[in-house]
Specification:
The chain is 20% helix and 30% strand. The chain is α+β, with helices and mostly antiparallel strands. A 9-stranded antiparallel sheet has the order 5-6-7-8-9-10-16-15-12, with no helix packed on it. A hairpin with a 2-residue loop joins strand 2 and strand 3. The longest helix is centred in the middle third of the chain and has 16 residues. The N terminus is likely disordered.
């Protein structure tokens, strides 16, 4: 640098004064580097610059957290991260112009001159944080996007899968009666996933915006009115691995109880104890499986307005609630109750809540009161330890009465003035409404989850909520997609909504089956199509305003007969579906999976929402238009079979599938194993002792494998304690024979079958059979049946859980 200065000085005698000043000022810019130094503290690398201190931390393999520390004492804490995270050491390499931090395949290169940070996976540049801003109005970041880069994320929106070109509010707000477009809904996520296989989570709960190249070309902008100046970037070689890295940091979804995957009776709402009893009796009378029933707000008041906050039974309409819950339990039915975080000033508990100081405050330290649809109200301050204890006692009383699950509604919160003051006991400071709004439902779910576990340590919590934050899945939250229009246009965006939320770790996002809002006349076809689709989504819960019955048992006989078949199928698929829940709880892999997982190098697949994968075996194409006789389906590569007819299709092209009112387009991937049980009407009767294993054979698939997870269906620590079994299926197929191997892992669980009656159904079998052997013994002709009409062979054996191989020649 001295040489450069001396050369310039020599030139000054021959240059004009103005040009000389320009050159000297340019040198000043070049030498005025922002970087000062770095240090390593507890695995974190803290870079000191004239912009302040920035901390870089490896939270998991393939992730780096970036936190600006200049106002650390004033900023809110992280809500998204697990408390139990152990940081990993970052490899640090300092060079003349940059610092390189390495965590696995992900590296961050910090430019010393301007403190921009570029992120690489191996040698591939993923993105660059171009700027950081923090002023009186807002704080946030700008990131560079490539011209053709597709960007998913933002949580619940109806905008198409690629959210590029949109500026999305980060403020949880209900959108009543939405249909085919919505830019703001109940559950916003400050999270994006790129087609370049990286994700960014902005760890900030404050109100703000996610701008994906809407305002600035090729720029991703996150901005918030306050909160924490922090983000976490993840990078992986595949989308499933990317999700796995994300949930390693934000937390994995606990296993739900098996009954949560069954049919849930629900409506807005059951107005009396007798109506609840009659509804369940109607399900039983119609031979329609059901496992639980949800009571909406009429359980604590006889009208919509004026009673919210009572949080106790209306004894006029529910005279014997404990006996009702007990009687339902004897029939295998779990009772779930709605609760809200608002205490109306007209409710029985208003004065108690004021005296206990459990409501959020105003600027004068008094209970903050405001008006909304349900009346004049205060808001329970779920961030305050006093309020948590008070609210927790309410839930404890309900649990003692036999209530099996909680529905948390209006938890955006639906109305939440900015001048509402919350007290955060964990960090002993206050926060205004807009700072904490998006984390309210998250904190509420955390409280309910912890209180339920304290009351029943070995029982898996059931928590249905419509709003939360990044990481809410670790508290067992089961989100739904809000008050959707009861119409075809309401049905159309449901796949997009569930897929988008699943990418952000919230894999149990589901819809009010049949639609919730409006509808003057019962649309049979639309209703049937929605409930058919529901079989292949995470939670099965028809729910609607009660001007038209939400429950299928209260409709015409044709509707009942069609829906009964589909709900029975969902129960038969419980071994398969429960295994998807296990995979999600251990890896974050969604139950509903986007088609772009099939070919990760083809960005065009990202835009597909009319077809999706249910696990790895099923391809589902919901019907969202009336009067169709055929459905066009773009098949991924490989061989696929019509689930209903066994017809074989070559993938990698479009097909036209014939449909009628009774058939939902469902295909099965060649090489798939699908474990199923006999028909049951309630999970209390669940058993996989008689197990039917469907295998879809095709010589194009030389090898395949799958698994089936089983435990007692209810114990909280089944996975952690090893109280389960994991059955591994594998196949080898050539021109001479098909061999299927069975192996079992795990310590086992109470009630596990000592052996199983196994019925293996091999699909697409067109050859004559020379011999079949199992565990080294030849089977006689009474143990198998060849059906040449539908090209299947059905084999029945007893399996003692020892490693065994079945060979067909």
């Amino acid at each position: 640098m001295k040489n450069k200065y001396s050369i310039i000085k020599k030139l000054l005698v021959t240059l004009s004064p103005i040009l000389a000043i320009f050159l000297l000022s340019s040198c000043a810019i070049l030498t005025n580097q922002n970087y000062v130094s770095y240090r390593v503290v507890d695995n974190s690398v803290i870079v000191n610059s004239k912009l302040g201190e920035v901390k870089y931390t490896a939270l998991s393999t393939g992730s780096i957290e970036v936190v600006y520390l200049e106002e650390e004492g004033k900023q809110l804490p992280s809500f998204s991260k697990q408390n139990s995270l152990n940081s990993l050491p970052l490899q640090v390499n300092e060079f003349k112009k940059e610092i390189k931090l390495v965590n696995g395949d992900l590296s961050a290169i910090i430019n010393k001159q301007d403190m921009t940070t570029s992120f690489y996976r191996g040698e591939q540049l993923l993105t660059t944080q171009m700027s950081y801003f923090n002023n009186e109005e807002k704080l946030g970041f700008d990131f560079k996007l490539e011209q053709n880069e597709k960007v998913l994320g933002g949580g619940q929106r109806v905008l198409g899968m690629d959210r590029r070109g949109h500026r999305m509010p980060l403020y949880n707000r209900a959108h009543y009666g939405y249909t085919t477009e919505s830019n703001q809904m109940n559950y916003s996520l400050p999270f994006i996933m790129s087609s370049k296989k990286y994700s960014i989570l902005f760890d900030n709960s404050a109100s703000g915006f996610l701008d994906i190249a809407k305002t600035k070309a090729n720029t991703l902008t996150f901005e918030a009115l306050g909160g924490q100046s922090s983000y976490i970037i993840f990078a992986a070689k595949s989308y499933p691995k990317l999700i796995n890295q994300y949930v390693d940091v934000t937390g994995k979804q606990p296993m739900p109880s098996r009954w949560a995957l069954g049919n849930i009776a629900s409506r807005f709402g059951y107005r009396s104890e007798q109506e609840v009893r009659n509804t369940i009796d109607k399900y039983i009378e119609e031979d329609m499986p059901v496992d639980s029933i949800i009571l909406d707000l009429y359980w604590f008041g006889n009208d919509i307005k004026g009673f919210m906050g009572n949080l106790d039974w209306d004894r006029e309409t529910f005279p014997t609630p404990v006996k009702m819950i007990s009687d339902l339990k004897e029939k295998g039915i779990k009772t779930i109750l709605i609760t809200e975080p608002f205490i109306l000033s007209t409710s029985d508990k208003w004065q108690e809540a004021v005296d206990a100081q459990i409501l959020a405050k105003d600027d004068n330290g008094l209970a903050k009161r405001f008006d909304f649809y349900f009346g004049n109200t205060g808001l329970i301050d779920v961030f305050d330890e006093k309020a948590q204890d008070w609210f927790g006692n309410v839930y404890k009383q309900l649990i003692d009465q036999g209530v099996a699950g909680v529905w948390g509604d209006l938890g955006e919160p639906e109305v939440h003035p900015d001048d509402t003051i919350h007290f955060l006991s964990d960090i002993n400071r206050t926060a205004r409404g807009d700072e904490i709004h998006n984390a309210y439902g998250h904190q509420w779910a955390k409280m309910v989850y912890q209180k339920q576990l304290k009351a029943q340590p070995d029982v898996r919590p059931f928590i249905l909520m419509r709003s939360g934050f990044a990481g809410s899945q670790r508290y067992g939250m089961l989100p739904w997609t809000g008050d959707v229009s009861r119409s075809w246009d309401g049905l159309k965006p449901q796949v997009e909504l569930s897929l988008q939320m699943s990418l952000g770790g919230l894999a149990y996002t589901h819809s009010d089956l049949g639609g919730f809002a409006g509808g003057e006349v019962f649309d049979q076809e639309m209703y049937i199509r929605w409930l058919q689709y529901g079989v292949f989504q995470p939670i099965y819960r028809p729910h609607a305003q009660d001007n038209i019955a939400a429950e299928p048992v209260f409709h015409d006989q044709q509707t009942i007969d069609i829906i009964r078949k589909y709900i029975k199928l969902r129960y038969q698929l419980l071994p398969y579906n429960y295994t998807l829940a296990y995979q999600n709880s251990t890896t974050g892999m969604p139950l509903m999976r986007p088609i772009f997982f099939e070919d990760e190098n083809e960005p065009k697949l990202i835009d597909i929402t009319d077809t999706y994968l249910w696990g790895n075996a099923f391809l589902v194409s919901p019907i969202v238009e009336p009067n169709l006789t055929t459905q066009k389906i773009s098949l991924p590569a490989g061989v696929w079979f019509d689930y209903w007819k066994n017809t074989r299709y070559q993938g990698g092209k479009d097909i036209q599938l014939s449909v009628d009112l009774e058939s939902l387009p469902v295909l099965v991937r060649a090489g798939s194993f699908i474990p199923m049980i006999d028909e049951i009407n309630n999970t209390e009767n669940y058993s996989s002792k008689n197990l039917t294993l469907h295998y879809y054979a095709d010589e194009s698939v030389a090898q395949s494998k799958s698994e089936m997870y089983e435990d007692d269906g209810k114990s909280f620590d089944s996975i952690k304690s090893g109280a389960f079994e994991l059955i591994n299926f594998s196949s080898m197929h050539n021109q001479k024979q098909l061999s299927i191997s069975l192996e079992r892992q795990g310590k086992g669980y109470k009630g596990m079958p000592s052996e199983r009656k196994l019925t293996l159904v091999v699909h697409n079998w067109k050859k004559r059979i020379v011999s079949i052997s199992f565990a080294g013994k030849l089977l006689d002709s009474t143990q198998y049946k060849l059906n040449l009409q539908n090209n299947t062979v059905e084999i029945s054996v007893a399996w003692d859980h020892q490693p065994a191989q079945l060979i067909i020649q």
